[in-house]
Design a protein that fits this description.
Length: 397
Amino acid sequence: MRNNHKDICIVISQARSSGRGLLQGVLRFAESRPDWKVHIYEPNAYGFSETVRALHRKTTDGVLTSELEDRDFARQLERSTVPLVVIGTRRQCLPARKENLTVISFDERKIGSYAAQQALNLGMFKSFGFVGSTDAKHIALSELRAAGFRDELRNRGVCCSTPAKGEKLASWIKDLPKPTVIVGCVDDRAAEVLDTCEREGLSVPDAVRVIGIDNSETICQTTRPTLSSIATDFAEEGYAATAELDCLLRKRKSPVPRKALHGSTRCSFVQRDSTRTLPPGLQLVKRAVDYIAAHADSNITAKMVVDHMHVSKRLLYLRFREFADKTLHETIVEKRIEVLKRRLLTSRQAIAKVTADCGFTNPTHVKTLFKKLTGCTPGEWRKRHGKSGGASTRYRA
């Protein structure tokens, strides 16, 4: 005999930021339903088989998924009558199923149109380009986003360029009149544009500005330069999709006709270095800070920074005074203290040994510096933070 709770199967990939955002919204809604028992599966052989097994055994009350690529999984969902919400796909999916199904699609054209608006807002450019997907999984999405991008530009009297079939990305980018803005249909594709620009010696963002779509932070934060991107509120989409599944569950006694909905698809522009131009003086300070951060664990000095930047000491000090809220020396100290803080947590060695390994030769002086920046001594800081850590929540998968 089954318990009174409702078993809900969620099949969403967490590999991309969109999936993680959807899941965040799903779980936020599920918190308001204490009678729900949520089973979260990755879209892999295990996740598909567990959901299909639950369908056969009639041990699941509802399914929410964003993945229909597995044919057997899709076929079983199509044959089932269990309440089902499919999110982020085209409306014509599972055509044979007529009841207890809601298909929620993202407005991909709207996302492409929004990307064009942000590209136009960046300034005056000689050309605008859109790079579509070569991955079969993203072809439909890519075409819709490209159409929205192209239509928005056309409405503003601006042309859009795209690589011809078989044309090499590098050749296409080099032929675009500069300066130009290029939008990738997804962040991965925009990251390829950045890599190509680096190989071809094309300056980003001076000659080429690059925008991705989806704001996958694992991609956007690790490219060089970091990648600006169009973010969609996937958490809101996930919450709304789960609320729709809840409606289907409440009407379970009488079949509900199939319906298709458009998600709200709320967008925002997250600007990073691939579109952000800086004054020369600020660029100099930023490069210096990046160098300090990269070498803060090697007893870096102001002279080392000056020598690396190939400018006079006076000029670098003036630029820090002009563009930073701290001096060059203060920046070096702060970055070195950050290294010390990490070492205090990752090492069990005596504090005197850790501080010495970080290049601080005067224990009294480093204790004073540390307390000035953190409000406590190294020993107090280690005790306070050494055993803290975010609680982890395990979900059945």
